[in-house]
Amino acid sequence: MEKSVEHGLEYYIDRMPGTGHADAKSCSSLVLAYIGDCVFDLVIKTRVAARGNRQVHALHEETSHYVQASAQSYMMRGIQEHLTEEEHAVYRRGRNVKSVSAAKNQSITDYRRATGFEALIGYLYLEHRYERLTELISIGLAGIEKRDNDRGTE
User: Fold this and answer.
1) Tell me: the pLDDT tens digits for 141-152?
2) DSSP letters for 56-68
3) Which residue of 90, 122, 131, 140 could cross-link 75, Cys pair, CB 3.0 to 4.6 Å?
4) 78: which DSSP letter?
5) Domains in the chain: ranges and CATH
6) What is the pLDDT of residue 120?
7) Among residues 23, 37, 148, 150, which one is catalytic?
8) 50-74, pLDDT tens digit by residue?
C-alpha cells in the first residue's frame, strides 16, 4: 500500500526523466493556455467522475458542458471581479493573443475569453498556487451551476 504523499503532483512530474519545471513568467500566453486547458480538463473530469460510475459517454457529455469555450467564458466573467492585478494581466494577455486555430461553434469573444481563462489556470498551476486556482475555479463553477439551476437544467 502506498504511503501518504508529502509532495504535490508537480513535485513528481518535475522529477521525471526528461522533464523540468516550466517557468510561468517566461511562458507565452498560448503555452499557459495549453497547460491550463489540461489542468482545467483534469479538474472537471475528476469532479465528474467523483459523482459516481456511469457510462463514459455520460461522463464525457457532462465534462463537455464545463470545458467548452462558452462555459469557460461565462466562468471568467464571474471570476473577473475576484482577480488580483497580476492575475488580471495574465488573463488579458491570454485573451488578447492571436491564435492560429479558429473557434469551433463558439463566438470569437467566448473563444478569446476562454483562452484567457485557460492561460490564467495554466499560470496559477505553474506557479504552484493551487489554493488560488481551486478558489477561482470554484467561484466560476458556482456561477455555472446557478445559471443552470435558473434555467432548470442539470
Assistant:
1) 999 999 988 887
2) HHHHHHHHHHHHS
3) 140
4) H
5) 23-151 (1.10.1520.10)
6) 98
7) 37
8) 999 999 999 999 999 999 999 999 9
Spatial CA neighbour of 28 closest among 101, 97, 118, 130: 97
- C-alpha torsion angle, residues 85, 71, 149, 136 (rounded to 10): -30
Q: Catalytic residue at 110? A: no
Q: Are 104 and 128 in contact (CB under 8 A)?
A: no
**How many CB atoms are closer than 10 A to CB 54?**
13
The upper half-sphere exposure of residue 14, i.e. CA atoms within 13 Å in the direction of its Cβ, equals 12
Instruction: Let me know how many helices (H) and strands (E) the chain has, helices first.
Output: 7, 0
pLDDT in the model for residue 106: 82
Instruction: Tell me the three cell numbers of residue 34.
Output: 495549453
